[in-house]
Amino acid sequence: MSTATQTLPDVDTRDSTGDDTPKMFHYVQKNKIAESAVLGNMVVALCGEVFPVTRSPKPGSPVCPECKRIFDNLPPGKD
Length: 79
Description:
single chain, alpha+beta, two-stranded antiparallel sheet, two-stranded antiparallel ribbon, about 25% helix
């Protein structure tokens, strides 16, 4: 099983008004999401954005177009 290609959308950007509602969600390694959410570690999205996981996406949430483009071009995972 390869974890390098297992990705899942998760949170990133907040606007400058202090509202913590994300503007869009990013794809990050699946195995890093829980660790970041619990320990506050930073994760790196496929697009290169670095942030701590603070929220989970809901159906219909906006996804970073660069992360989506990269994810769609990755080879399929083994699970």
